[in-house]
Amino acid sequence: MMKVMKISLEGPIHKRTRYDIYAMLIRIIVIHGYCPLTRAARSTNLPVDRAKNILEFLEERGLVEVVEEEKRRLFRVTTRGRQYLEMYKRMIGFVGMPMQEPVTPF
Length: 106
Description:
- Helix 1 (18-32) packs across helix 4 (79-94) and helix 2 packs across helix 3 (48-60).
- This protein has a three-stranded antiparallel sheet. Strands 1-2 form a two-stranded antiparallel sheet.
- The chain is 48% helix and 21% strand.
- It has one domain (19-94): Arc Repressor Mutant, subunit A (Orthogonal Bundle), CATH 1.10.10.10.
- It has four helices and five strands.
- The chain is an alpha+beta fold.
C-alpha cells in the first residue's frame, strides 16, 4: 500500500485524516478556552465553511458546545471533547507520529 504524503520546504507532511482535523480543532479551542469560528479555521488551515461544518458535527456528538456571548458564537470544548483529545494523543503516540502544531497560535 502506498503512503500518501505532501512535500513541504521543511520536509514531508502527512495528509491529515478527519480524526487529525477533529483533534486539531479541539486542541485550538482548548488552547484559547473559547474560540470563534474564524480563529479555529485559520489556526487549523481550513476554509471557514469546512471548519463550520466540522464544528457542527463535533457539536452534534457532544465534543464541543456553542456559547453565545455579545452576539458572537464561541466554541468551547466539553469533557467528552477533552477525552477525545487525550485518546487521540495516546493513539498517535503508539504509532510514533507527532501531533501537528497549530498554524497561527494567537
